[in-house]
Amino acid sequence: MEASIIRAAAIQMDSQDNKDENLKKAEALIRAAAGAGAKLVVLPELFNFSGLSEDVAANAEHLEGGRTFNFLGSLAYELGIWLNGGSIYEKIAGSDKCFNTTLFFDPAGRCAAKYRKVHMFDVDVERGPRYLESESVEAGGQIVVCRTDFAKIGLAICYDLRFPELFRAQALAGAEVLTLPAEFTLNTGKDHWETLVRARAVENQAYMIAAGQIGVKKYYQSNGSSMIVDPWGTVVAAAPNKEAVVLADMDLDYVRRVRESVPSLKNRRPEVYAKSASIQPN
C-alpha cells in the first residue's frame, strides 16, 4: 500500500447498559478492524455505556488509570493502531455532571489527544425524542485537532455534526481527516445524517469517518448508517443495518488534489464574514 494511503475503519455498535458486554464486543470489533489492515479505527459515541440519563454519573470514569482508558490504550499498543475511542462519560471532580469525551490513542498506547463534546443535544423533536444532554453533561470548550504520523485528525462527537463552524476551524488548522463518533437517533438521522456527513466532507475537502450506534436503546432507536466519505463527498464505504466494521482506504494525496483543484478554503473571505449582515431595504 502506498505511503499516502491509510486504511480506516468505522465501527458500528449496539451498545447497551452493560459495560462488561460493551467492552467485550468493542474488543472483538477493534481486533477485526486491525486484522483487516486498518491503521485508524473509530468507535461510536458512548461505546462503553449507553443507558438512562440518571445512570450517567454512576457510569462515568476518571481518564488516566480508568478502566476504559486502560482498555483503549492497551489495545492500541497491542495492535499498533491509532484508536479513536468513540466517547465515554468522564468524571468531573466535585460535580454531579460529567464530560462526553473522546480519547485518541497512538500506536504506542499513549493518549495523544482528548476532546470534550462542545455542543449539547438539547432537543424536543416533534414526534421524536425530547432529550436534555446538558442536564447530566457539561459542555466542552475547545476544538481539537490531533497530529498523527500520517495526517492531522479532527475530533468531534455526534450533535457537533450540525455545527459547520467546528469542522471549518479544524480544516483551517490543517485537518485532512474528520472523525465523528455518534449516537444519532433514527428519527432525525434518517433525514439528516448522510446529508450532513457528506456536507462536512465536501465543504472542508477532507475525509469524514462517521461511526454510529445502531439498535434500540431505552427511549429511542439509533440511526446506524456508519460511513466513510471522501473529500469529494462520495460515500466510499457504508455499514449494513447491523453491527459492523466499515473499511476504506483513504488516499491523503487525494485531499491535496481536491483542495488544489477547487481551492475553496483559500478563497474564503473572513474579513467579510466578520461584518454584520446588511438587511435591505432599510
Describe this structure in words.
With 282 residues, the chain is of the alpha+beta class. It has a single domain (5-261), classed as Nitrilase/N-carbamoyl-D-aminoacid amidohydrolase, CATH 3.60.110. It is 27% helix and 28% strand. The protein has helices at 19-35, 56-59, 67-79, 164-172, 186-204, 252-261, 270-273; strands at residues 5-12, 40-42, 82-84, 88-91, 98-105, 111-116, 122-124, 130-132, 144-147, 152-155, 177-182, 207-212, 214-216, 221-223, 227-229, 235-238, 244-251. Strand 5 and strand 6 form a beta hairpin. The protein is globular and about 55 Å long. The mean pLDDT is 96.
Please give the count of helices.
Answer: 7
Strand content: 25-35%
Whole-number tally of structural domains: 1
Query: Residue-averaged pLDDT, rounded?
Result: 96
Query: Which CATH architecture would you pick?
Result: 4-Layer Sandwich
Task: Spell out the helices and strands N to C.
Answer: EHEHHEEEEEEEEHEHEEEEEEHH
Specify the CATH class: Alpha Beta
Write the topology of this structure.
Blueprint: E1 5-12, H1 19-35, E2 40-42, H2 56-59, H3 67-79, E3 82-84, E4 88-91, E5 98-105, E6 111-116, E7 122-124, E8 130-132, E9 144-147, E10 152-155, H4 164-172, E11 177-182, H5 186-204, E12 207-212, E13 214-216, E14 221-223, E15 227-229, E16 235-238, E17 244-251, H6 252-261, H7 270-273
Parallel strand pairs: 1-2, 2-3, 10-11, 11-12
Antiparallel strand pairs: 1-17, 3-5, 4-5, 5-6, 7-8, 9-10, 12-15, 13-14, 15-16
Helix pairs in contact: 1-3
Task: Fill in the keyword field for this structure.
single chain, 282 residues, alpha+beta, Nitrilase/N-carbamoyl-D-aminoacid amidohydrolase, seven-stranded mixed β-sheet, 27% helix, globular
